[in-house]
Every structure is written in structure tokens, then in C-alpha cells.
Queue: 4 jobs
Job 1
Amino acid sequence: MTSLLGRLFAPKDDDATPLRITVYSRGGCGCCRKAKDVLEGFRAKYRIEVEEVDVDADPALRDRYGMEVPVVAVAGKVRFRGKVDPVMLGRLLRAEAPRA
């Protein structure tokens, strides 16, 4: 009975807040472009909000991430550096992101 009630009152995916993903990158970076393309490939399946941050616009970020870009943070936690693994990203999104 509780599982039925849980399903009735559970938030619908339509009402779910998108999972926030931040891509720390720099202009002209081919690896950064590839990382953003991988993320775009998951938009049809998951509700994600992708924010791009140019590390060269902020000296603190440039010092922090240097040549490690792209750096991808999911829900505030850094998950990828240098390359986004689509298999690992898919597993992460299945666990944390609402469906589209």
C-alpha cells in the first residue's frame, strides 16, 4: 500500500528541477567542444541544465583548472577532467538526473 501511495504522491519528472552541469572551458579548446557535444547528446533523454564558464575570464579559475580543461562539475561536484566519458556520464545521469 505504501508503494502505491508513494507513486501517487511522488513528484512527476515534468516537475523535477533539471540537474545542473557546469563546464569549465576556454575558447578554442577542441577537447572542451567535444565535452559539450557529449553533454548535448544527453539532453533528449535527461533534464539537464548546462552552464559554460570560461576559465580565462577569471584568474582564480585559470589558476585552479589551468590546462585540465574541460572540467565538468555535476551538481557542484567535479566529475570529469580533460575528457567526458559518455558511459560514465550516462550512469551518473541515470542515477541523478530527472528524465526528459
Job 2
Amino acid sequence: MNHESTSPLHGIRVIDLSTVVAGPYGAEMLGELGAEVIRIEPVAAASVPAPKPDAPISEAEGFHWALQRNKRSICIDLKQVDGRQLFLDLVRKSDIVWENFRPGVTERLGIDYPRLQPVNPGIIVCSISGFGQSDASGPWSRVGAYDITVQALSGVMSITGSGAPDAEPCRWGVPIGDIVGSLYGVTGVLAALEERARTGVGQQVDIALLDAQLALNSYRVPQVFGANMAFAPASPRRGGAGTVPYGPFRCGDGEWLSLAPSSNFWRAFCAAIGQPALADDARFCTIAERQRNQPALDALLEEVMLSRPAAEWEALFIAAKIPVGRVLDIQGAFAHPQAQARGMQVELTNRTGRRAPAAGSPLRFEGEPARAQRAPSLSGLDTSDVLSDVLNLTPDRIADLQARGVIGVRAS
């Protein structure tokens, strides 16, 4: 059986207009699920020289290799009448348009949802922006947004960091505002596809990055507004439900080990560290007492954890069925035997022979092998093939459009 034909989104075509992280992350995920994703780029991108096959991956190219996988690339000038018509012709034969322009841009280009819907009543448009698509979305609807501004506005930066007095607010180490917006976008279009299957009608999915980040506050919201609790950056050694001990402790080899012995593991934890009497110590026998006496408990554990290297402690706690994990850097994380067993590091090779490692897909389906990842396509490399295969344009027509600057075609 053709493996691609078993993919959940096989037969779904996505037109991807998105840039940076907030859009491309989700469009790439749709490609992982088997959709045909056609990425539209400016005409000039087709003439940018390709790096040599043996050139190292630059910091900027990391975005390309991570976010533009599983897509074909075509270059169209959407500001030209003929370019816009090509786009509309593609929409007519597609299922999803995915974009993260600032609100108002698609309207100026003449490709906003009200003008796409008559072309294809079943089209689903996912629009990702900072604050919403229309003026009715609120006073900031036309304000541009970056991940870090969304993190700041959402409240998440006020509770993230070291917990030290006067420490500056801290963002996530990855652009979580952009990423979670894309994840909600994927969820939205999958739901819209299901509704279209019942009604035959598409719709616009309006994703605001601030909304998505606010939603990530999750249980903190009822705690703040329902229980009148206040939060600052949490102690790195206290869990969300007040678990103590919790978090990183330095071990004898200088590495850090993150502990999470909640109440049901407390007695086993004390036995594992060779301190069984701690389980019944009046200062630590309940979670309330451990919270009250956390400085004393932390000081005791700091000394105990220094008696063994991190890997030895980790193995000991795992044998005792106590949640634990060493604090790894990214290289160490992907070298971990669990990540290796799940195939979470893949190597991609593009058509020029250039290679780069990337994170694999976390999506698994019972009874099916992990789906192969396709390396990012060079800008404009697929222009001729897509226009020929999808729109049935002749070579002469493609050559004419290229000569007039309507499309960009990269030589293969």
C-alpha cells in the first residue's frame, strides 16, 4: 500500500502564505499529516543563490529547515493582476489557505476571505494575527505583534523566571506564543474540515496569538480570579500544586537533576536517598509541613544529592518508580535513548544534496510507521511543476509568465 495514501490528510491541499514562525510551524504540521502544502513566496526569492551542499547551516537557516519541511515552493507576484489570478485559480482547487499577514494586508491584495469564498465556497482560511482579524476584535486589532510582546501581554512573563527578588521578566527559550498560535490554528482547520464534510461550506478560522497565549495560563486563571491568588515567578523548587521538593538539584558531578516526588512518592523517595526516617519527620511528613519547612528540606537534599553523580541518582530513582530527569542541553536531549527510540531526530537532504538534522514529528498513529520528513524546497524550485500539475499550464504559458515577472522559477 502507498504509505502517503494512508496519511490522515492525504488529498487535502494547503496554500501557505505565512512567514517567520507563527504561520509556517502549523503549515508544516499539516504537511506532516499528509496534506499537500504549496508555499507561496515572492518572485525575487527564486533568484537567491542556493548555498553550497557542504555549507554549514546558519542560525537564520535553522528557521527554514525546521519550519518549511513537507512543502513545495512556488514564487508568485500577488500584486500583479495575473499573479493574483494564478492564486485564485489555485484556491479554486485547494482546501485551505493559511496566512499570518497583519490584518488588512489580504484585503489590500484582494485575496481576503470574502473574495476567496465565492471562488471556492468550501475554502477554509486560517488567519493568524497578533490580536484578531477585524476592528471588532478590539482596540489592538491593527497593532503588529511579535512573540515576545504577546508573552509579555499575556501575563506569562510575570510568572516565568528564577523567582529571585528583582529578577527581570523572563521569556520562554522558544517562541511559545508563535508556536501555540500555530497549534490552535491546526486544531481550528481540522475542526473546520470536519464541519465542511457535513455542510459543504468552508469558513475563516481567526487565531489571535494573544488569545492562544492567554489560554495557556490554564489553571492559573481560576486561581487568580476565583481564589483571589497572586503569582510571581515561581520558585524553581516548588511545583504548580505546591509540591515540595520539586525541581533541580546539583549532583556530585556538577550536573543537575530535576526531582518531582509528589506526596504519593514521598516515602519511596526518602528510602531511595537512604533517609527513610525523613518520611515520618514531623517537619516533612505532610505536604503542608514540607512547604512550611522547605528551606530546611532543600538544604538537606542539596547535601544528599552531592553524594552521587546525576546519572547514578537518575537510575536509582527510576528503579524506585519516582519521576526524575536530568537537565539536558538540546544535544543531550536528542541523544537520550528515549528520544532515539522514538526517532525524534531526523536528517533531511534536499535536492542539492545539502543535509541538516531536524526534530522529528511527535505524531504517531497506531499500526503505521513514522512518516518520512521531506527537506525544505528551495524557493521557486516547484513553480513550474505546480502550475503544470495543478493548473494545467503549458510550458509556453509558464515561460510567458516568468518573462513578465509574474512568477519566479528556479532552475533545477
Job 3
Amino acid sequence: MDGAQPTAKTWFIRIAPGEAQIRCAFRRVKSRIVRFTVQLEIFHREKWVPIVRYDNAHGFCHCDTLHPDGSQEKDGLFAGDANETFTYVIEDLRRNWKAYQVRYLEEAK
């Protein structure tokens, strides 16, 4: 190993201000992502609530679908290496955030 130090970055993509945002975070060594989390959050009942989270914790890439009752479903995901998967999941949440929001709000009724 060449001693390269990991770098970390976290930022938000405001897809619908005051309604929905994507929280993105990664840790990388050089140009290779080694850990990531990408989470869709909606503003519900006066706070930001995570409703879908993609990450590569637990040794594999997966999607956690979060429910209002606190339960969650974990589904494996393969879209290439961590860099490719990171890009893929951001685009998925950008394209499909409204459907994810509708699902969560219907469950919250």
C-alpha cells in the first residue's frame, strides 16, 4: 500500500427545497470510493426523515427501504464497483424521489 490517506465528503442535493433532499457521503482513497451512503430524506411532520438509503455497509452494496413504523427492508444491489454504484444510486433517487415519497406518506397515514 502506498500510504494514501482516505478523504471524506458529505453534501446535500436539494431536489425539492423544503420537501426532499439527497444526503450524499463517501470516503475514498485516491479516486476509489471505499465507503458510501446516499439517503433520500423528506420533510415530514416538521423534520427531515430518511425514507430510502443506499450504502455499502455490512460488506455489500444494498438499499434500505425505511418505513414510518421504524421497520426496514434490505435488498442487495449490484451496479458495478462502488464508484459506479454511487453514481447509479444518486441518479435513481433524483429520478424516482417522488414515488419513494408517495410510498412513505401513504404508509404514514
Job 4
Amino acid sequence: MKFEYQQLINQKQIIDELELQSFEMNIYLLKLHVGNNQGMLYENGQLMRFHSTQQVRDAFAEFTVLRSVMVHDSPYDEMIGNPPKTETNLKMPFSMQQPY
């Protein structure tokens, strides 16, 4: 499912889980869980990208987010010649509160 950012704002949607997916070079994508639906966040039909965690906090400052996590997929083992792990994702809590 696709979630359009502006539509979420207009509906004042409650986000059950915000999953911040971290990629190399400071690229972050969001997967949202709203009710029984889950999907990526889009803006004007394009996958919405963020370049810092603060951008995510700012974009969702007016939303009610019940749970937020950051997921980082590390290719480290493959880079050093080890066989790939079956699960390389690191999932940790992510605070939506301003760090200051």
C-alpha cells in the first residue's frame, strides 16, 4: 500500500508504527503501519526520501506516532568476504522527540 504524506496530514491519521529504514549516504525511507495496512510513504506519487533523522521528526511533529523504530541493513559481512547472514537488519527504538 502507498501512503501519501499530504493525505495523512489532511486526515490527521494516527500512525501505529513508523519504521525508519536507514540506507547508506544518509538516505532514509519510511514504512508506515496504520491499522491493518502497511506501506511506504510517498509525496506527489514519488517515494518520499529524508536525508536526516531530524527531517523525519520535523515531518511527523504534528502526528500521533504510537511506536517508532529505525531499521538498518548492514552489508558488512558480505563486504569482508563472509557469507551473507540470513538476517542482517538491525532494528532499534527511534525517538520521535526532539533530542534537545
